[in-house]
Amino acid sequence: MNKIRSTLKQGITTPSLIFIIGVCLISAIYPSATEDLLSTVKNFIFINLNWVYVWSVTLFVIFLIYIMASKYGNIRLGSNDSQPNYNFFSWMSMLFAAGMGIGLMYFSVAEPMQHYSNPIFSSMSTVQRAQNAQLYTFFHWGIHAWAIYGVVGLALAYFSYRYRLPLSLRSCFYPLLKDKIKGKWGNIIDIFALCSTFFGITTTLGFGVVQINSGLVTLNVLPENSFPYQVLIVAVLVLLAIFSAVSGLDKGVRILSNINIIAVVALLLFVLMLGPTVYLIGSFTEGIGTYINSFFSLTFNTHVYEENTQSWFHDWTILYWAWWISWSPYVGLFIARISKGRTIREFVAAVLILPTLFNFIWMSVFGNSAIWFDMNTANGYLSKMANDPDGLMFQFLEYLPLTKLISFLVIGIIIIFFVTSADSGIFVMNSIATKNARISPKWQTAGWGVLLAVLALMLLNAGGLEALQSMTLITALPFSIIMILFIVSLTKALVIDKGYYEKDFSSTTIPWSGEHWRERLRQIVSFNDAESTELYIKTTVQQAFQELGEEFSKNGIDAKINLHNIPESIEVEIKYDVINNFKYGVKKESKMISEYLLDEENLPNSEEGVVYYPKSYFGDSREGYDIKLFTKNELISDVLKHYERFIEIVSEEKNTMFISSDANHRFK
């Protein structure tokens, strides 16, 4: 009998499942007692340690803005010549769907209405309460939230694609722990990430199911909002999520995310055009200005001088910071997975600015429309429903044309967000549990979806979702400290990275002396064709490398000449066991000539408009250059120049982690 194949790592999976199932069972069997205990702990943290969240989130924002604007922004998440795996639209669609999907549908009307109708703001005028509701909604769903995701995603993507370490939270500690990340410390970090991801997805999907059920009841598709129907909804949606997850990111998640972002924009435009359009555009414009003007006061405000608003501050701002932090392992891992090949500047700008801007537009259109209807049409009815977020969105749609059709569209969007959140969650959990195994059996991927569905339904039926939510929020406190260590680790690595590529050549390097100037002039004033370039590689370059290899051998160094598909390319390579190999190669490259130069009499002719030239390349992905003017001896000198630089770099202790991160594939 064949043994069932699995890629799960027992040191991570077993303790994680024991803890996850144990907490869920306790929450389901003793929901009230568990909720009381965990709520007590959560409230203690929120009241006495809320400053930890405030300072942490502030640090995340400042760090990312600095990194984006600094010289480190040009560093690519991968080798220097790597390219993104996904086009910009697909990348943003997946990023957005995983990061805030269901939450936007759930809170887009509910949060502004709850701020607007909250009794603690009753002393304000109606207009002030409306402005206040928009400002705090912007604050909770803006740059601060995405900065939390961005720190984790950037650290994971950088160490995974730049240092070639596993796509795992443990890799973010490599500059601090070095090889210890392979052992128990690395396992503990991954166990924490797996449990946090599972809890966050379970609670969010549980609330999403309730909203879908409520919407179907409103549309008379289902007779009631009850557990049996929720079981049916979960069964269908999780099956779709499993099918999508098994299909892979390139098919399931990407296609669903692209479809959903189009549907979301269509819904947004519908509400904008058929709602109070002038009011929405004006309130959005004013809201952006208010947010910018209040940015620093909002960021650092702990409400310590305002006792009447402290409970609101704990229940909203601190809860949101804890919620985003608790979700960051999951969202960060997913963002990192789809961001290979982006520069740090491109990554940070996209993650911070674009989703924030969309969130502001979305929240303004839906939240401000609801407030306008409440003031002018609904006679305060929406305010009275503020504490029923499950049905508030559908009640809001009653004040727009084509209510039934748009309600079905909303349910469809929520369903797709549900599926994309679940399937990306399944992917991330399997990735953590397998240490980023490239291929896992389909039954294993499906198993995570089944476990997610079973535990979510069990907690939903027993009333234990609130207890699990409190547990998730509590874990955010230690993880905020872990994220600060990510910043320390990332900063250390970026300094080494930049220093490595900016390392200058030795002062002993001798430039061209002027010898053989007649031959060089002929080369300068002639455009090379493919045949002459191939001849240069096959003669001058090959002869230089062979002579160099023989001389290396005499000095006890084994230098291998890799001919590859000569005369297209050739390289000299010196292999090492502990550090990355030294490599200097030459390949045939081509480039187009400007049309303005083709007919210029005082320049060399090129009939095809394309020139070929021999270009150097290196083992560390630094940008090479045209070497067609080098003689054999000058080429040998150039190789030795780079080899001397290589020896100087590997001799510096601080560069150890950068130059040895993928040498012998220790973490695979």
From TrEMBL:
<comment type="similarity">
    <text>Belongs to the BCCT transporter (TC 2.A.15) family.</text>
</comment>
<feature type="transmembrane region" description="Helical">
    <location>
        <begin position="45"/>
        <end position="67"/>
    </location>
</feature>
<feature type="transmembrane region" description="Helical">
    <location>
        <begin position="229"/>
        <end position="249"/>
    </location>
</feature>
<dbReference type="GO" id="GO:0022857">
    <property type="term" value="F:transmembrane transporter activity"/>
</dbReference>
<dbReference type="InterPro" id="IPR018093">
    <property type="entry name" value="BCCT_CS"/>
</dbReference>
<keyword id="KW-0472">Membrane</keyword>
<feature type="transmembrane region" description="Helical">
    <location>
        <begin position="12"/>
        <end position="33"/>
    </location>
</feature>
<feature type="transmembrane region" description="Helical">
    <location>
        <begin position="445"/>
        <end position="465"/>
    </location>
</feature>
<keyword id="KW-0812">Transmembrane</keyword>
<feature type="transmembrane region" description="Helical">
    <location>
        <begin position="261"/>
        <end position="281"/>
    </location>
</feature>
<feature type="transmembrane region" description="Helical">
    <location>
        <begin position="318"/>
        <end position="336"/>
    </location>
</feature>
<keyword id="KW-1133">Transmembrane helix</keyword>
<dbReference type="InterPro" id="IPR000060">
    <property type="entry name" value="BCCT_transptr"/>
</dbReference>
<dbReference type="GO" id="GO:0005886">
    <property type="term" value="C:plasma membrane"/>
</dbReference>
<feature type="transmembrane region" description="Helical">
    <location>
        <begin position="138"/>
        <end position="161"/>
    </location>
</feature>
<keyword id="KW-1003">Cell membrane</keyword>
<feature type="transmembrane region" description="Helical">
    <location>
        <begin position="88"/>
        <end position="109"/>
    </location>
</feature>
<feature type="transmembrane region" description="Helical">
    <location>
        <begin position="471"/>
        <end position="495"/>
    </location>
</feature>
<feature type="transmembrane region" description="Helical">
    <location>
        <begin position="348"/>
        <end position="373"/>
    </location>
</feature>
<feature type="transmembrane region" description="Helical">
    <location>
        <begin position="405"/>
        <end position="433"/>
    </location>
</feature>
<protein>
    <submittedName>
        <fullName>Choline/glycine/proline betaine transport protein</fullName>
    </submittedName>
</protein>
<dbReference type="Pfam" id="PF02028">
    <property type="entry name" value="BCCT"/>
</dbReference>
<feature type="transmembrane region" description="Helical">
    <location>
        <begin position="188"/>
        <end position="209"/>
    </location>
</feature>
<keyword id="KW-0813">Transport</keyword>
